[in-house]
Design brief:
Deoxyribonuclease I, Chain A, two-stranded antiparallel ribbon, Endo/exonu/phosph_ase_sf, Endonuclease/exonuclease/phosphatase domain-containing protein
């Protein structure tokens, strides 16, 4: 929250309150009201290691309430549509935890709901001088 960004957010929403910033910078929880509704915005940067990521998701669930917007880098793929063609969807116990949280807390992947059959892999890397 630098260079006036916090101030700009306050100008858009009615109230903005930092609830939690922790786990070595991997989670930011902000409470805000917008158009007479209260919302909780959770921004995550999940660990790359699946064992750490599983524990991270388990701890994350305590913050998810009604009207939660959950965004960030989850470092896992939820479906086969979320991986590059020619790769396999490997077993990942953290994915199961994230799916369970989604079901228990009534969350939805709005992009996937709007694009149910679209095959997209969002990570981009430079290999042999080209973007892949």
């Amino acid at each position: 929250i630098q260079n006036g960004y916090f101030r700009k957010c306050v100008d858009i929403v009615d109230s903005l309150c930092l609830k939690f910033n922790g786990n070595d910078g991997r989670i930011l929880v902000v409470d805000f009201s917008f158009q007479e509704g209260m919302f909780l915005l959770i921004c995550v940067y999940a660990p790359v290691c699946y064992v750490d990521r599983k524990l991270f998701f388990i701890q994350l669930e305590q913050w998810v309430t009604n009207n939660t917007i959950l965004i960030g880098d989850f470092n896992t793929k939820l479906t086969r549509l979320d991986i590059m063609e020619g790769t396999t969807l490997r077993w990942d116990s953290s994915r199961d935890i994230l799916k369970q949280i989604t079901l228990r807390k009534g969350l939805m992947d709005i992009w996937r709901a709007e694009n149910p059959l679209t095959h997209v892999f969002s990570r981009r890397v430079i290999l042999q001088q080209g973007l892949r």
